[in-house]
Amino acid sequence: MPGYHYVDVVREGPLTIVTINRPEVYNALSSAAHDELAEIFDAFAADDEQWVAIITGAGEKAFCAGHDLKQQAAGGGLTTPLSGFAGLTARFDLNKPVIAAVNGVAMGGGFEIALACDIVIASRSASFALPEVKVGIAALAGGLQRLPREIGLKRAMGMLLTGRRVSASEGLDLGFVNEVVDSDVLGAARRWANEILTCSPMSVRATKQAVSRGLSIPVEQAVTEQWEYLALKEMLASEDYVEGPLAFTEKRSPRWTGR
């Protein structure tokens, strides 16, 4: 695995753990850090042996404070990879689950990373905001689109037009956080990942693809078209599609291969 300057990557079996490692700037992302994350998630997407990813931040203060505004102020711009902020927010073809372990502040693009993930686990001290309007920019890495879809229009506009900060507990109530923990947020994210890993990776990918595509079209159309989705076709043709019912009838745990 290649070495990175701003991000740490650890693989634990089929689980990839990605840690933004810039705690001195609250894990804000420079252009170089964006490029590293894009490369890391490219590799995760392409690796058949990697089934689930967790993304978190180094230290206890921040998950990610968004763009490195000091770089922008110095003329460095706001460039991001084609796959979006942190290589995730515009990666619309990733059918593998990604879990955000939010260990501190998730501001701007940092919150948009979490919104682009499938599951969000937050420490009790975590907080979330899209404060771009306060600094003369806008939440253009998916926040303007994902937040209304996840929590409803009026509640989203209440956050987007004021840039106000929301606690982890309020995020749970609003619905964009799955669980709040008092300590060891990464351990809690691992627990969720391990629950996913007990399931067929082929089924998980088919499920994520069908849900993601179905959100933007009528239900009748989604129910019909899901049979044409690649991940569903791959699930139906897989060894795992045979192994699951066989393991059930033999009263044993399934041995998933992801093929």
TrEMBL record:
Alphabetic keyword roster: Lyase
GO MF terms held by the record: lyase activity
Pfam families: ECH_1
Organism: Novosphingobium lindaniclasticum LE124
One Gene Ontology term from the biological process aspect of the record: fatty acid beta-oxidation
Transmembrane regions: none
Record carries keyword Lyase: yes
Family per similarity comment: Belongs to the enoyl-CoA hydratase/isomerase family.
The keyword Lyase appears for this protein: yes
Name this protein carries in UniProt: Enoyl-CoA hydratase
Domain of life where this protein originates: Bacteria
PROSITE patterns per record: ENOYL_COA_HYDRATASE
